[in-house]
Amino acid sequence: MLLKSITHDKKLPLSTFWLIFGLFTVLAFLEFATPPDYVFGYLYIGPILLLNARFGQKATRQATALACFLTMLDVWVPSDDLIRASTVANRLIVVLALIVTGFLSDRNRSYQQVLLQQQTKLQAQEQLASIRENFASTLTHDLKTPLLGAIEALKALWAGDLGPVLPAQKAVAKLIIRSHQTSLQMVETLLDVYRNDTEGLKLQLAPVDLVKIAEDVAMTLMVLAASRRIHISFNYNNSEFRQFLWVNGDAFQLNRVFANLLTNAINHSPRGSKVEILLQPGASYQVAKVIDTGAGITAEELPYLFERFYQGDSNRQAKGSGLGLYLTRQIVEAHGGTIWVENRTPQGAIFAFRLPVACS
Known about the structure:
By secondary structure, the protein is of the alpha+beta class. Helix content is about 60%, strand content about 10%.
């Protein structure tokens, strides 16, 4: 029955079959060739574990039962000596050890199978995620070329290079150009996010003034702010004079940080309100805060705002791709800084970050 179970469960290698058969034969011979006081039953643990490692639960249980049967049979066969209670008790202890060994080895095999399945599933998920990342990165890279071509063609149309254009057509062309530029910006952001995740963010470090960067970004966003009737103001930490906040940073990347935070604040503030940029110099860190007067952020959303693709379910007016704040966090952390968000009283949100002071 045991051999049938073994050969039924799996194709048994000939060497393994003879090894298991030989171990059982040798141990049975030792058991029956010696007096009952000499117990060799513990040695059945070896072939039981070997069976468990190679075959299924059924074979392991049958091998354990056979080992227990042979161990107890030697009490009466072939000896005609007086059977002592201590001998029976000793062999019962061996039987108990064999049963425990079979049970635990079978349980361990089950755990290993579950663990192997989980590892296989995790590897498959990681492989799928890698394929998705590569696909998204390739797709976004390939999308840039047609978008750039469309923008340049529309600009030529708007400028009249392709012939006379009516004012109404110019207005439509300008709207399409702006839409394509927004799409291009989103594609470039997505491409940068994937590149930073895989290759790391490469910085061109030099002493830069955060105040200068913030003021330049605010100037470039004046048209967007005016379209929403948003007033952008600067606060130099209760000082009446312009401050300098020097850090060792990449001017281009820090420009993106302020652009993302300011655009976010403008889009989430009600019309006719104000967005404030607070710049606080410090001994160890330079702090910049962008303060809006929007609906604020719920407590449930606060821990996830800087996660990739997170958009949230708040009542804030504008929805984005969920990449701007994630990219902002990547840039700030690459500079050795920290970024955070908090609600302000009575209304609005504060997006803030700090960077180490530039070493002189």
